[in-house]
């Protein structure tokens, strides 16, 4: 069966070999709440659909319009089996409850590296920040090299920003994107970090300038803040 949980997902689970992210546009904060409730009802009224699905989490965007979805799969075949046999009935029920949902994108990723705050017990994240960057063409070596450079800059920053809990870097399977799932103590801590001296989060060091001017970096989806709204796991 399906069980609801308030616990945030463990992003570096070794048995999650196919983490997926997607976003829906629903329009208003009220429709965000309605959609989360519809997802919960739809899933909790059905058996857990696949042994290969290890967790499914939904987040409400601070923009008042979007939802982020993060599903943790043992492998891509488990998702393909779910897509073929169980997905459509769930989508139909949710769309009946909340008509007009726009499904914007689905990204297939692999977890690459994580950085977790190492002083004291980790707090429950009060805000999830998604940083999405895109490169001008597929290049897995470039994806990894850029993440390595970001982590080097973070670890050498003489003035780390307070409130950061963790950063989990994922590489898209098509070789063109990097997604950082970052956990913060609060949205205010992240906003204050963005407003700190330097270009973005960082000290303005040569290492950060190297990251921000990486060859082939074109931009992407930018930075978005979310609240964890729903966690579903097998009972």
Walk me through what this model shows.
The structure is a single chain. The longest helix has 17 residues, at 140-156. The chain contains six helices and nine strands, in the order ββαββααββαββααβ. The chain starts with a strand and ends with a strand. By secondary structure, it is an alpha+beta fold. α4 (140-156) packs antiparallel against α6 (206-212). An eight-stranded antiparallel beta barrel has the order 2-4-3-9-6-8-7-5, surrounded by four helices. Pfam families: ABM.
Element-level helix/strand string: EEHEEHHEEHEEHHE
Query: What value does the average pLDDT take?
Result: 93
Share in β-strands: 35-45%
Structural class: alpha+beta
User: What's the tally of helices?
Assistant: 6
Gyration radius (Cα, Å) is 18 Å
Sheet with most strands: 8 strands, antiparallel, barrel
Query: Whole-Å distance between the termini?
Result: 5 Å
Keywords: Monooxygenase, Oxidoreductase
Organism: Streptomyces plicatus
Protein name: Antibiotic biosynthesis monooxygenase
GO molecular function, one term: monooxygenase activity
Protein topology:
Elements: E1 2-5, E2 18-25, H1 29-44, E3 53-61, E4 66-73, H2 76-85, H3 87-97, E5 102-116, E6 127-135, H4 140-156, E7 164-172, E8 177-184, H5 187-194, H6 206-212, E9 217-234
Antiparallel strand pairs: 1-9, 2-4, 2-5, 3-4, 3-9, 5-7, 6-8, 6-9, 7-8
Helix pairs in contact: 1-3, 4-6
Keywords: Monooxygenase, Oxidoreductase
Protein name: Antibiotic biosynthesis monooxygenase
GO molecular function: monooxygenase activity
């Amino acid at each position: 069966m399906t069980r609801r949980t308030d616990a945030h997902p463990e992003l570096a689970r070794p048995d999650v070999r196919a983490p997926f992210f997607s976003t829906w546009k629903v329009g208003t904060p009220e429709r965000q709440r309605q959609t989360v409730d519809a997802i919960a009802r739809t899933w909790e009224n059905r058996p857990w659909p696949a042994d290969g699905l290890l967790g499914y989490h939904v987040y409400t965007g601070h923009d008042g319009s979007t939802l982020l979805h993060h599903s943790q799969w043992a492998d891509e075949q488990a998702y393909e089996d779910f897509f073929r046999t169980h997905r459509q009935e769930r989508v139909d029920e949710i769309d009946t409850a909340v008509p007009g949902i726009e499904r914007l994108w689905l990204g297939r990723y692999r977890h690459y590296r994580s950085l977790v705050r190492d002083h004291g017990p980790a707090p429950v994240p009060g805000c999830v920040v998604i940083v999405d960057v895109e490169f001008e063409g597929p290049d897995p070596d470039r994806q990894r090299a850029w993440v390595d450079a970001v982590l080097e800059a973070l670890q050498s920053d003489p003035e780390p920003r307070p409130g950061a809990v963790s950063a989990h870097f994922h590489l898209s399977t098509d070789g063109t994107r990097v997604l950082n799932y970052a956990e913060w103590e609060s949205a205010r801590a992240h906003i204050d970090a963005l407003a700190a001296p330097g270009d973005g989060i960082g000290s303005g060091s040569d290492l950060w300038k190297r990251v921000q001017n990486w060859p082939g970096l074109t931009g992407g989806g930018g930075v978005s803040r979310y609240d964890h709204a729903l966690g579903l796991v097998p009972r």
